[in-house]
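Researcher: Let's walk through a ligand-bound prediction step by step. First, I give you the protein sequence. Second, the SMILES string for flavin-adenine dinucleotide. Third, you return the three-dimensional complex as structure tokens. Ready?
Model: Ready.
Researcher: Here are steps one and two:
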Amino acid sequence: MNDVLVLAEHLNGELKDVTFEMLAHARGVADASGTKVAAVLLGSGVGDLAERLAQQADEVLVRDHDGFAHYNSAVYQPVLADVIRGREPSVVMIGHTAFGVDLAPSLAVALDAPLASDVIDLAVEGSDLVGTRQTYGGKVNERVGFGGAAISLVTVRPAAFAPEEASRGGSVVALDTEVPDEPAFRRFVEYVEAAAGEVDITKSDVVIAIGRGIKEEENMPLITGLAELLGGVVACSRPVVDAGWLPKDRQVGSSGKTVKPKLYVAIGVSGQFQHVAGMKSAETIVAINKDPKAPIFQAAHYGIVGDLMKVVPALTEKITELRA
Ligand SMILES: Cc1cc2nc3c(=O)[nH]c(=O)nc-3n(C[C@H](O)[C@H](O)[C@H](O)COP(=O)(O)OP(=O)(O)OC[C@H]3O[C@@H](n4cnc5c(N)ncnc54)[C@H](O)[C@@H]3O)c2cc1C
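Model: Step three, the predicted complex:
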């Protein structure tokens, strides 16, 4: 096998978590196949980011150019295709993010390479690369092969792998690959920052998340009371946002936010993988659900099977008593 190449994703001068998660897993794949981990970084004024990446990768390939001041897949794609053709890595890892799902399919077509999307694992078995993806709402894991292709592409689900601290001191290599102008059919217009809510659920040590099991907006005070008592914030699953009970910036999951609090309490949340993707790295997860087979119990460290309308008041009362 050849190297494992990780595409670094960054925004506003910061590398995204998924980049470090991919680098950590790439290390395992590279070690298993006796190869190296390379990162590719496209950006404008990204010297600092390259140094940061060099702590985790054996080599960082950097194309620093004004044309990358803003993300545009129509500019990224031909440059990346050139870099990949030149390096011939065995596998290219790209985050399964808005950025990655925009870029990876057209890149795979340009390279005539197989692409497995949203993988949660990537392993070397003998001389073969095997990816794992989930289907049927996370009920089934499927193993995918790449037909022995020379170059394969995967998009990697955020939070599927834990990042690792490392201080490798890899080399930084400046590339001079030609960067095309933005095509007329696809231009960067402006970056619109999501409206900042009153609460940043990613910053709190305690997150109390509610799901559809809460049933009525009128039941919310039950939850806000518990959150206040524990000094936490209230977050939610997507149906709660869809119902308009909480704003979008409280949603946890693959299309919401990723949180890593010390304590995550999931109340009336079934635990579909789209939700779990955003909270599974929490230090301690407690789930309250009336269905003992709810998938959230697979992610939880502690589970309470019961009606939240009874469990939450009892829990609140007990904590109040202990605090007193
Ligand atoms: C592309 C895509 C992206 C998505 N992104 C996200 C995302 O970012 N975040 C997200 O959360 N979802 C996301 N979803 C939706 C996701 O698939 C699930 O539909 C959603 O997470 C389910 O929310 P829920 O657990 O609140 O509701 P449900 O699945 O309806 O579960 C409700 C749970 O409450 C329990 N319950 C009911 N009554 C009680 C009671 N009285 N006491 C205790 N328990 C009770 C039930 O047993 C059940 O387990 C996404 C879906 C798609 C297709």
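Researcher: And what stands out?
Model: The chain has a mean pLDDT of 94. The chain has two domains: 4-174, 206-323.
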